[in-house]
Amino acid sequence: MELPAVNLKAIILVHWLLTVWGCMNHMFPASYAWGNFSVLAVGIWAIVQRDSLDAIMMFLTGLLLTVLTDIIHVSVFYPPNNYLTGAKRFSIGMAIFSLILKPLSCYLVYRMYRERGGEYTFNLGVTCASQDRSTYEPIDQQDASPQWPDSSKIAQHPY
How far apart are CA 93 and CA 112, in angstroms? Predict the structure, then answer.
């Protein structure tokens, strides 16, 4: 079953709204807001530059990293049960809902990365063998010069 095409703007809008609601009661430190909003800013960069693989790849990487940081924030800063008011419950619920949606968003952004021409493997900048076949030479050519000198022709000594 194929998932429907989702616009990158919709993904960013949903996560922006959930992050705003998650930051509503100052339960999380500033790093929660800075981390999520900076990744969403990279997502806006990916919207503006539609042909950029770097922008969509950095947005995908940022989303994956915020999954980890959101788990840490929710687990460390979850308040005790007797301090939970209705607004705090709503705020932390929206942060958890954003965290639950992030793997789906990562999958959809990865599909967009593939549509933009990205590869299955992630390129970390390390040079590797290319698949350019323009300089291919068949090994069964008979008229090619031999790689090693002919042993029947012994070099003459100059003395």
Answer: 28
DSSP string covering 61-109: HHHHHHHHHHHHHHHHHPPPGGG--HHHHHHHHHHHHHHHHHHHHHHHH
Residue in the block written with tokens 């599909």: 111
Could you give the angle at which helices 30-48 and 8-22 cross, rounded to 10 degrees? 170
pLDDT reported for residue 16: 95
Verdict on whether the full-model pTM lies above 0.85 = no
Reported as half-sphere exposure (CB side, CA atoms, 13 A), residue 51 has a value of 0
Query: Would you mind telling me the total number of residues written for the chain in this entry?
Result: 159
Render pLDDT for 38-73 as a digit per residue (tens, 0 to 9): 999 999 999 998 888 899 999 999 999 999 999 999
Q: Which residue would you say has higher pLDDT here, 11 or 82?
A: 11
Q: Give the CB-side neighbour count of residue 127, counting CA atoms within 13 A.
A: 0
Largest CA distance in the chain: 102
3-state secondary structure of 23: coil
CB atoms near residue 104 (< 10 Å): 12
In this structure, what are the phi and psi dihedrals at residue 135, rounded to the nearest 5 degrees? -100, 20
Of the pLDDT bands very low, low, confident and very high (cuts 50, 70, 90), residue 1 is low
